[in-house]
């Protein structure tokens, strides 16, 4: 197991050599929610077999030749895998493992299991300060209450000062006015807050996209006011551009990439139907070369997900400067305002 300081040095080396620094690893496509703004719960990959902990450990070790990566363990709902703490531990030998969950299945025991396994951070999805609206969009009664309970249990379960608990919201057509209250509620629970815009690629519909005026100035002002607003300011500054015309210059395949629950490697999660390699069958060198080749041809402007925008901010001087405190220093507990 590498020490945190060693991982940070290896992460810097990966960034400096222009190797990918972020991997989204969908450990399952099964999901217990029926979110209206996401169709992954319908994905037939949810019926397919999933890799074992040993296979994931071998794949993560192979990727270590890139350097240390920020690895987002997601899905689907990753907590449906009862071996998720073991997966976190396996990935954490070389990398920084993060988990994104809807919170429904988090218990005091599972929260302690994730933190003791070495999760660098856990993000819980909460889109509204209003319970009824959150539950309606997430397709599950009681989702809001379970999510906040998960935030509290995860915050209490931290065993290292560098471990972070985040609330992450999807900016949609009707929730921007609720973000200040969400920030306050996260701060009260000693959690950070992040936001990403709704992306139509998950559903094929733009019905949920924000369409009521400019948002970037409002988000940047909230970030100035709330110390627990963790999203990079460069990333936030591009929300209006994305909503109006899309953001070019995508670094998918070069700065970040996706691994499916079958091990297939693609430049991003929305290109998973066009994999370039498989983490279990191909060498690290083959994976890197194929990702770079596919990334050079990428002209997509259709998303501004957190996994894209936050990483691309690291390649901008201002964005990098603002990310350094998060990347270099142990700020696991969010300061309350």
Briefly say what this structure is.
The protein has 337 residues and is α/β, with parallel strands linked by helices. The chain has helices at 4-16, 53-63, 84-91, 108-117, 131-138, 143-157, 179-188, 216-225, 233-237, 239-245, 284-296, 306-313, 317-328; strands at 22-26, 70-74, 96-101, 121-125, 164-171, 192-197, 256-259, 264-266, 277-278.
Explain how this protein is built.
The chain has a nine-stranded mixed sheet with strand order 6-5-4-3-2-1-7-8-9, sandwiched between helices. It has one domain (4-328): TIM Barrel (Alpha-Beta Barrel), CATH 3.20.20. It has 13 helices and nine strands. α2 links the parallel β1 (22-26) and β2. With 337 residues, it is α/β, with parallel strands linked by helices. It has helices spanning 4-16, 53-63, 84-91, 108-117, 131-138, 143-157, 179-188, 216-225, 233-237, 239-245, 284-296, 306-313, 317-328; strands spanning 22-26, 70-74, 96-101, 121-125, 164-171, 192-197, 256-259, 264-266, 277-278.
Strand content: 5-15%
Strand neighbour order, sheet with most strands: 6-5-4-3-2-1-7-8-9
Envelope shape = globular
- Counted up, domains total 1
Q: N- to C-terminal separation?
A: 36 Å
Question: What is this structure's SSE topology?
Answer:
Elements: H1 4-16, E1 22-26, H2 53-63, E2 70-74, H3 84-91, E3 96-101, H4 108-117, E4 121-125, H5 131-138, H6 143-157, E5 164-171, H7 179-188, E6 192-197, H8 216-225, H9 233-237, H10 239-245, E7 256-259, E8 264-266, E9 277-278, H11 284-296, H12 306-313, H13 317-328
Parallel strand pairs: 1-2, 1-7, 2-3, 3-4, 4-5, 5-6
Antiparallel strand pairs: 7-8, 8-9
């Amino acid at each position: 197991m590498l020490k945190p300081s060693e991982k940070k040095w290896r992460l810097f080396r990966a960034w400096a050599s222009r190797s990918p620094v972020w991997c989204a690893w969908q450990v399952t496509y099964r999901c217990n929610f029926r979110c209206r703004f996401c169709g992954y719960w319908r994905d037939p990959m949810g019926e397919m077999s999933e890799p074992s902990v040993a296979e994931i450990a071998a794949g993560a070790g192979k990727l270590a030749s890139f350097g240390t990566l920020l690895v987002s363990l997601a899905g689907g709902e990753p907590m449906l895998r009862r071996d998720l703490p073991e997966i976190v531990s396996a990935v954490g030998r070389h990398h920084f493992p993060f988990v994104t969950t809807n919170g429904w299945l988090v218990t005091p025991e599972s929260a302690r299991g994730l933190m003791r396994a070495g999760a660098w951070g856990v993000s819980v999805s909460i889109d509204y300060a209003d319970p009824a609206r959150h539950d309606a969009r997430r397709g599950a009664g009681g989702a809001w209450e379970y999510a906040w309970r998960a935030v509290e249990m995860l915050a209490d379960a931290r065993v290292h000062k560098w471990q972070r608990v985040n609330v992450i919201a999807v900016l949609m057509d009707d929730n921007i006015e609720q973000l200040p209250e969400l920030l306050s509620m996260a701060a009260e629970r000693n959690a950070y807050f992040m936001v990403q815009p709704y992306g139509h690629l998950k559903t094929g519909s733009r019905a949920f996209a924000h369409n009521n005026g400019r948002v970037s100035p409002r988000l940047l002002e909230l970030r100035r006011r709330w110390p627990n607003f963790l999203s990079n300011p460069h990333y936030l500054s591009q929300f209006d551009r994305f909503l109006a015309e899309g953001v070019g210059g995508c670094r998918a395949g070069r700065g970040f990439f996706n691994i499916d629950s079958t091990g297939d490697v693609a430049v991003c999660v929305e290109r998973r139907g066009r994999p370039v390699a498989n983490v279990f069958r191909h060498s690290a060198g083959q994976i890197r070369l194929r990702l770079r080749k596919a990334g050079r041809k990428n002209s997509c402007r259709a998303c501004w997900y957190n996994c894209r925008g936050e990483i691309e901010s690291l390649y901008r001087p201002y964005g990098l400067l603002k990310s350094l405190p998060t990347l270099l220093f142990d700020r696991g507990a969010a300061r309350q305002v």
